Amino acid sequence: MYLRMRVFVFVVVFLAFCTIASSPPATAASSSVPTLPDGPLRVDDCVRIALGRNFSVVNAREGVRESQGAQLAAISSFAPHISSGGSFARRIQGPQEFYVAEFDLTFKTDRLSSDTYSYNIQATQNLLSVSDWANISSAGHSVRAARYSLDLARQTVAYQVKAQFYELLKATKLAEVSRGAMELSEDELRRANALYEVGSVAKGDVLKAKVRVSQSELELIGAENRVKLERSRLAKLMGLPVETALEIVEDLGRETPQVEVEDPVKLALKRRPDVLAARENLKGADASRFASKAARFPSVYSSLQYSWSDNSFPETWDSHRKNYSWNVRLGLNVPIFDGLSIAAGIRQATARAAMMDNEMKETELQAALEVKEALLVLDEATKRIAASKSGLASAEEDYRLSRERYDVGSGTMLELLDAEVSLSLARSSHVEALASLRVAEALLEKATGEPAE
To answer: Given phi > 0 = left and psi -120 to 50 = alpha, else beta, which region is 339?
Structure first.
């Protein structure tokens, strides 16, 4: 008897294990994580690494998986639901005694026990539910919106990495300008010392040159620290430790934009992920609103159940030829009154659809505004390059003339130092203008929805 009970318990546990094992396991997100290549990185290399490692992109990718799970849950409403169960029961009745007064007799019974074994398998199928079909449609729109949100995250990260790449490149070039200014100030100090030793200039020229050397040294220290900070910021955007020693290479010599877009606003409204996601969210909200209304419609379902029960454990398959039952059902559910929950759901879904419509219109207006701003920024950057180039040429000529005048004794040290400072500022302005052109191009690409590679 105890052996039979253990076998029956094993069967029940096995059925439960099969039910649990049939559910799909949660798997971690699998995506190839790019590694750092050997040698200096170009801007495309940094973008490629960031798209695989940046946490905003990773989270957006998980958002797609989450929406797919919600879609699967909606689809499961039309999948067969199969369940099984089993039980074992033992009834024990202690000894009893009955006295019959008419015959002056006493009856006694011994301790009694009985076992009951049973199990069942049931399958339920949803045949018709308009509300569930609408929920599946809404979930599909949510998946597409999540994919567009992933594209938006990729485009945003690509722009941020490009902008930060050129910030680092600009900081590197500005550090070179500061290093050049340091060399010029040291050269002026040596020249002032030489002229002072032969009695051509006063002691004040030497002191002014020393002050300029100190200022140049402080500027160089700040410029070098700026390079370290911008490098750490770029590493962070790329999903790398901030201590990563990134080395980049790129030419800032181009002075004209390479981005040419016809009707950029129309292009942005056609392919920007945030606009497309807003449209899908509106479609999903409309489907949810219809689903809330369809909850008032009837639904049709069917079920099939097999049950078996006996006082002894089934030792052979022939034992199932008796003490069993089949139950087949075809049902119709008609909602009559649900405490106003359907009406409340309709009101909520209608309000959400209106909100999604307003959000879509706001997103389209924002896209048009960002395109306008990007075009203005690009135009400004182009004009800044021309102006800074002209200013740099003038500053170089002014420094050359000031140096020649000082060498022949017709100029002062103050004029020479002023010309040197102006030259350093002109070089810095030209570097900033060249870098701003690249950032403006990246901004226009993002504003028009250029896909991230």
So the answer is: left
From the CA atom positions of the chain, what is the Rg in Å? 40
Residue 21, pLDDT score: 41
Structural domain includes residue 111: no
The one-letter code for the residue type at 14 is F
**Contact (CB, 8 A) for 119 and 84:** yes
Name the amino acid, one letter, at 165: F
What whole-number distance in Å separates Cα of residue 406 and Cα of residue 6? Answer: 108
Closest CA to 51 of 38, 34, 63, 37: 34
Residues 6 or more apart whose CB falls under 8 angstroms from that of 71 comprise 136, 139, 140, 142, 143
Tens digits of residue pLDDT in 295-318: 999 999 999 999 998 888 777 777
pLDDT at 234: 97
Domain that holds residue 146: 32-79+129-298+334-447
Residue with the two structure tokens 């973008």 = 47
On whether residue 245 sits in a domain, the answer given is yes
148 contacts 274 by C-beta, under 8 angstroms: yes
C-beta of residue 40 within 8 angstroms of C-beta of residue 251: no
Provide the CATH number for the domain around residue 380. 1.20.1600.10
- Residue 97 inside a domain? The answer is no
Token readout for 238 is 């790329």
Cα 345 to Cα 294, 350, 385: the distances in Å are: 11, 8, 59
In a domain, 25, yes or no: no
199 Rama sector, left if φ>0, alpha if ψ -120 to 50, beta otherwise: left
Q: Is 397 helix (H, G, I), strand (E, B) or coil?
A: helix
Q: Is pTM, for the whole model, over 0.90?
A: no
Contact (CB, 8 A) for 246 and 49: no
Q: How many domains does the chain have?
A: 1
Q: What is the DSSP letter of 333?
A: E
The string of pLDDT tens digits covering residues 366-399 is 999 999 999 999 999 999 999 999 999 999 999 9
Q: How far apart are CA 108 and CA 190, in angstroms?
A: 128
Specify whether the CB–CB gap between 98 and 106 falls below 8 A.
yes
Reported confidence tier of residue 32, pLDDT bands at 50, 70, 90: low
Task: Report, as an integer, the average pLDDT of 128-136.
Answer: 92
CB 300 within 8 A of CB 127: yes
